[in-house]
Amino acid sequence: xxxxxxxxxxxxxxxxLAPIREKVLRGSRLTIDDGLQLYGxxxxxxxxxxxxxxxxxxxxxxxxxxxxxxxxxxxxCALSCHFCAFARKRGDEGxxxxxxEEVRAEARKAVESGATEMHVVGGLHPWHPFDFYIxxxxxxxxxxxxxxxxxFTAVEIVHLARISKRGRDGADGIxxxxxxxxxxxxxxxxxxxxxxxxDRIHDEAFKGKIRADAWMDVHRIAxxxxxxxxxxxxxxxxxxxxxxxxHMAILRSQQDETLRDWACSQGHxxxxxxxxxxxxxxxxxxxxxTMASCKTGWYQACIPLPFxxxxxxxxxxxxxxxxxxxxxxxxxxxxxDNIPHMKAFWIMQTLPLSQxxxxxxxxxxxxxxxVWYDITKVDxxxxxxxxxxxxxxxxxxxxxxxxxxRDTFYRPVHRDGxxxxxx
Length: 423
Ligand code: V47
Prior knowledge:
Blueprint: H1 18-26, H2 32-40, H3 44-59, E1 62-66, E2 68-72, H4 100-112, E3 117-121, H5 130-143, E4 148-151, H6 154-163, H7 170-184, E5 186-189, H8 199-205, H9 212-224, E6 228-235, H10 241-265, E7 299-306, H11 322-335, E8 341-342, H12 346-349, H13 351-360, E9 365-368, E10 370-372, E11 384-386, H14 389-398, E12 402-405, E13 413-416, E14 419-422
Parallel strand pairs: 1-9, 1-12, 2-3, 3-4, 4-5, 5-6, 6-7, 7-8
Antiparallel strand pairs: 10-11, 13-14
Helix pairs in contact: 2-10, 2-11, 3-11, 4-5, 6-7, 6-9, 7-9, 11-13
Bound molecules: ligand V47.
Ligand V47 binds next to β6 and β7.
């Protein structure tokens, strides 16, 4: 594997970026002001150069993809978020609800295609009882015993705690719901529903949804229970760049808390700040947490999601440009120094831009084959949004990187057609 030491260290054209460059070379944490400066500079290529340095320190020349299948089990949703083009009210044209039998059929298709993961999320259905969700997870587990079930955003988990009628709310209810779902087969939580951690934006764009503190509580409890999670940021609508950088800083400080004990055991992070992106010599123990050394779960990946205006109430907005998307993922890579993976979700970023993000924007993961996706549809394309493994591998190779199929925990997958195993 080519190591970072064999590459020249990146330079910066904008002299104002020199102090940030020094911090990145040293492995020091960037501040919120640094993040804003990275947004404000005309020198995008230097921002990308620094993000690429960090990415190579962490992952060498590997870029990850997985064989997965997304399942959006219903678009019926009690909420009416302005950015959302997915949700319908029951009876609306296009509203749908999968039955447990239909979920089972999706799981069968996932097995046949050799998927290692099902990513299952839906709207906040107003009438499904709690048992429906347990039955859904159990049904997938029965049909697909070796497939990892990554399911339910924090928003859905809070909804489930409310409808589970245990007479408990708050942390205890969430813990019990997560434990029950895990008992049925849940393996981890996806990163959706975080939107932008800011009360003003929340009240204007997604008022009925849980606020940042509740979203973070769900992920904290999941981590305590040993479940891994991801984190998204939905940007490019009515928020500003300052709110994005603050969102990143909030996620980063929660990850500091989550990784504190592990970091101390590895000889870094004794000041409470856990930086995983520094030069190699900074890490005497493991650079990244592993399931053997870290007993809790943690944020595995951050997925910046560019707002897709098509068919939403905010359709008048044009959404972020390609350059803004590239800049945002590069800044996320630099600011989120304690989250191991940065995912360019090709469905929302597009395949060509995701390839560029892998090559020079700090991304190390492109998500997977997906197959069927209903939450966003660019330019009126349908729900069938699939790409093949060969296409993903080709794009990664063309970016000068080594494609590596991973499972949900970023372990290498060995594959022979639809059969697969973990090292
Ligand atoms: O929760 C909704 C967002 C999320 C729009 O964890 C929109 O590995 C852009 O969370 N434009 C779902 N975004 C997607 C998601 C995800 C995707 C890939 C991987 C992972 C992971 C998570 O999409 C929703 C919401 O935050 N969203 N509407 C829109 N118009």
